[in-house]
Specification:
By secondary structure, the chain is mainly alpha-helical. The protein has one domain. About 80% of the residues lie in helices and about 0% in strands. α1 crosses α4, α2 packs across α4 and α3 runs antiparallel to α4. The radius of gyration is 19 Å and the shape is elongated.
């Protein structure tokens, strides 16, 4: 019951994030730690008073942290690198060789 409650709280936070304009989403995701702390404090404040509520807020906080980490890669780091292949090659230190085969008609 605690995990399900935490997932429901997290889904509500994701829906709020989706409603924001794209520019504001990118700005928030650039400040991952601040966003994580603000969301966790908000969830704890709203669900304070019972053990189940606090544990649901903890699950929602963990899921929010994972979500912001993934979104920072997708919305900020990949576009700055110029695409997924460039990001992966910079991140893990390998060179990507893409070969295009063009058939003549």
């Amino acid at each position: 019951m605690i995990i399900e409650s935490g997932i429901i709280v997290f889904v509500g936070l994701v829906f709020l994030f989706i409603k924001l304009p794209k520019a504001l989403q990118r700005t928030l995701v650039k400040h991952e730690l601040s966003l994580d702390l603000a969301m966790m404090i908000m969830a704890y404040t709203l669900h304070w008073g019972t053990f189940t509520g606090v544990m649901a807020a903890a699950v929602a906080g963990l899921l929010t942290s994972a979500f912001t980490a993934l979104m920072s890669v997708r919305l900020v780091k990949v576009p700055e690198a110029g695409g997924w292949m460039n990001y992966l090659s910079e991140r893990f230190g390998f060179k990507v060789r893409v070969r295009y085969h063009v058939q003549e008609a």
